[in-house]
Structures are given as structure tokens and as C-alpha cells.
Automatic annotation (TrEMBL):
A molecular function GO annotation: nucleic acid binding
Organism: Ktedonobacter racemifer DSM 44963
Domain of life: Bacteria
Name of protein: Rhodopirellula transposase family protein
Length: 404
């Protein structure tokens, strides 16, 4: 039987498109059709492997098909023989990751290199160098988990205090201790940029014809989302504030949230609050500290403030929720306060909708304590040495004359 070039090309292409026993049987039948010396001709003219042909002839003769264990071939994924690897990767990277400052992406960007992550896996979780995958593989796995090993460049150079790295080290320690203690609950709190209510374009895309005003004239109203996020349980509470966001406003939202969950968290003795160093809530803001002290005394629960350093507020976990919200409502018109609230209610974080409430209380700006009054508040505060602005404990103490 003569094999023309066209026939050879057809046989080779057909064999390549088949897999497993179907491929071997096709090769065996072809060799039979070639007659005497078929195996030799198939090897020389078609490039087929003789061992594969013989296996196909055995299957053809016996009628028994050999099952191919394709899943058992190749190198196994690292997480198959290191079952805790992905969880440990998240533990290392998550606290050192920030949201996109412009909310253009929901990915997280970390300060750590893949080599540093690998080193911490060895020193912190006691993996051996031999059993761990390479830094390139770790990069791939982190990308699949939603983390990118690069910084996000802003339009202006990032500023960095000399204490920035030390603050991050203490933050990591404080957060890990809080998450490990049953009597401590960690929450992340922050206000998003104020949303203008009106027929304004938001830069998103939509499959529905949406027409926005060609200029952003004066807004009908404004809504400032204030969020409280619980990293341990991925719960998100969102409050749409129609007034200015002040120190009183932020603490009122803390009170409002605690009133809604305190029965569920009756065992909690300490709240660790991750916040940025904003003008309404920094640790030298007298009205903010006074209101927090009142909160501690009213609910008999300790509060530990753990601040992110300046220009690094996007590392605060609640910022990730803002990224999701921005992606969720971009491309739509937020032309009423109700539209803002309804869009917030329909967003999802880790598959769950947030608890959303509208706040219409009007807050007065510029409220502050006298120096003498603030000195009295300071007697109830414990500031960490050398990091006084960034870590503050407000402890509850029984009034004099009362027993424990």
C-alpha cells in the first residue's frame, strides 16, 4: 500500500487529534492495513512510536482497553502535598496588601516580594526550602488568589515617614493577636469619598444606554459612605451619611453598629479598630477621643486604636469593600439618594450583601475640647511608647468604690 503525502498528512493529523486508547487503536488498524512491515513503515513515514503501536495491537486483539491515568501524570500542585500553603500565603500577604487607590481594579497590591513571602513561609510556618515551590510559582499562586506583587503608583510620589515600617510591624502583631483571641474583635472603619448625587458620569461602562450630563454642575445632594468591616467574618456594614462626616458622626456609627451586634458579641471584651489617620479620627482629635471614651464607659468594653501610617490608608481592609462598591455602581447614574442606597444594598462582598442604612442626622463641624478637658481625657488613654499617635488603648475601669 503506497502512502502519498496527502494520506500521510491525514493519518498523522488524525492520530494527533485522538487521545488514549482511541489513538492507539487507530494506529493499530492503520498498521494492519499497511500489511507486512507496517510497524516499520509507520515509524519511518509517520513518526509513530512502535511501543504505542504494539500496545494498540494488543488492545485490538484482546478487546481489552487500557485505561490511561492522565491525572496521575506530571508534577502535582504544591497545595496537594502542602495542604495549608494557600492559607499560610494569605496570612502573610493579606495584612501587607492595599486596595487600588483609584478603585480601577478589585485586585489587592502587596508590599512584599515573592522571595520575601517564601522566606516568611520558612521562618514563620517552618516550611523547608526543599518542599516549597519557587518564587515564580508563589507569584502565580498569589495572582490566582487576587494579590499582585507590585505597588500601585499614584500621580504624586508617595510620602513615607521614618516610622512607617515600624508601624506596619506593630499593626501586623496587633491584628494577629486580636484575630487569635476569642474575647477580642477586630474591625476596620473608614469613610469613602463623598458621592455627588446627580446625572453625573462615573467613568464606568454599561450595556444599557445611559446618558449623563456633559458637565458636572452642582449636585442635588451628597452621600458619604461610612463602612465598618469585620475581617474575621467578612461582614460589611455600610452607612450612607447625608451630612458632613465628623468625629461625632464616626463614633455614632460605631455606636449604631455595636447596638446591632452586641448581643451576638456579648463575649467580646476588647475592640481593635483599624483606622486611617484622617482629620476626623486621628488620635489627637479631641472630640473623637472624648466620644470614644464615652463609648468605652457606656458599654464597658476596651478599645484599641491601631492606625495606618499616612499615605498608606489603602491598606486598611475596609478599602477593599470600597473598591467593590465603586466597580458595582460605575456605569450607572446615581441621580438620587435612594439610588445610592439601593446600589449599595445590591453589591456583594464574598457573596454576601452588606447591611446598609441611610443616616440623615446633621452634624456640626469644628467641635473640639479645651486643653484642660483633653488633659482629663488623656488620663484614660494608654499610648504606646515611641508610637503614641498610632496605637492608643482606651481601657474601661470601674468607678472608684465599686467592686469588680
Amino acid at each position: 500500500m503506497e502512502l502519498t503525502e496527502e494520506v500521510k498528512e491525514l493519518l498523522i493529523k488524525t492520530a494527533n487529534e485522538l487521545k488514549g486508547s482511541a489513538r492507539r487503536l487507530f494506529m493499530a488498524r492503520t498498521v494492519r492495513a499497511l500489511g507486512e512491515g507496517g510497524q516499520r513503515r509507520a515509524k519511518e513515514e509517520l513518526g509513530w512510536n512502535r511501543a504505542t503501536i504494539r500496545k494498540g495491537e494488543h488492545e485490538l486483539k484482546s478487546g481489552r482497553v487500557c485505561v490511561d491515568a492522565f491525572k496521575l501524570r506530571g508534577r502535582k500542585r504544591s497545595e496537594e502535598h502542602l495542604p495549608n500553603l494557600l492559607k499560610d500565603l494569605i496570612t502573610i500577604v493579606d495584612g501587607q496588601s492595599q486596595a487600588d487607590p483609584q478603585f480601577r481594579s478589585t485586585r489587592l497590591y502587596t508590599r512584599l516580594t515573592a522571595a520575601e513571602v517564601r522566606r516568611q513561609l520558612i521562618t514563620t510556618f517552618h516550611y523547608t526550602d526543599a518542599e516549597l515551590p519557587t518564587a515564580v510559582t508563589i507569584t502565580t499562586k498569589l495572582n490566582a488568589l487576587g494579590y499582585s506583587l507590585r505597588k500601585v503608583a499614584k500621580t504624586q510620589p508617595q510620602k513615607k515617614l521614618p516610622e512607617t515600617d515600624i508601624i506596619f510591624e506593630h499593626l501586623k502583631q496587633v491584628n494577629e493577636e486580636a484575630d487569635a483571641q476569642d474575647s477580642t474583635l477586630r474591625l476596620s472603619m473608614d469613610a469613602k469619598a463623598t458621592v455627588k448625587v446627580g446625572p453625573f458620569a462615573r467613568g464606568g461602562k454599561s450595556r444599557v444606554l445611559t446618558k449623563a450630563a456633559d458637565h458636572d454642575f452642582e449636585a442635588k445632594a451628597t452621600v458619604t459612605p461610612v463602612g465598618i468591616f469585620l475581617p474575621a467574618s467578612d461582614e460589611f456594614f455600610l452607612y450612607g451619611v447625608a451630612s458632613k462626616v465628623t468625629s461625632d458622626c464616626l463614633v455614632d456609627r460605631l455606636v449604631q453598629w455595636w447596638e446591632s451586634v452586641k448581643e451576638r458579641f456579648s463575649h467580646i471584651k476588647t475592640l481593635v479598630i483599624n483606622v486611617d489617620n484622617g482629620p476626623e479620627n486621628h488620635s489627637r482629635r479631641t472630640q473623637f477621643m472624648q466620644r470614644l471614651l464615652e463609648f468605652v464607659q457606656q458599654y464597658q468594653i476596651a478599645v484599641r486604636l491601631a492606625y495606618y501610617p499616612p499615605y498608606h490608608s489603602k491598606y486598611n481592609p475596609v478599602e477593599r469593600c470600597w473598591g467593590i462598591l465603586e466597580q458595582h455602581w460605575n456605569g450607572s447614574l446615581l441621580d438620587s439618594v435612594d439610588a445610592v442606597i439601593q446600589f449599595a444594598k445590591t453589591m456583594t462582598w464574598k457573596g454576601n450583601h452588606p447591611m446598609v442604612e441611610l443616616v440623615t442626622t446633621t452634624y456640626q463641624t469644628g467641635v473640639k475640647l479645651t486643653k484642660e478637658a483633653m488633659q482629663g481625657v488623656e488620663t484614660h488613654l494608654q499610648r504606646w511608647p515611641s508610637l503614641e499617635k498610632w496605637f492608643v488603648d482606651i481601657m474601661y475601669s470601674l468607678p472608684v468604690g465599686r467592686d469588680n
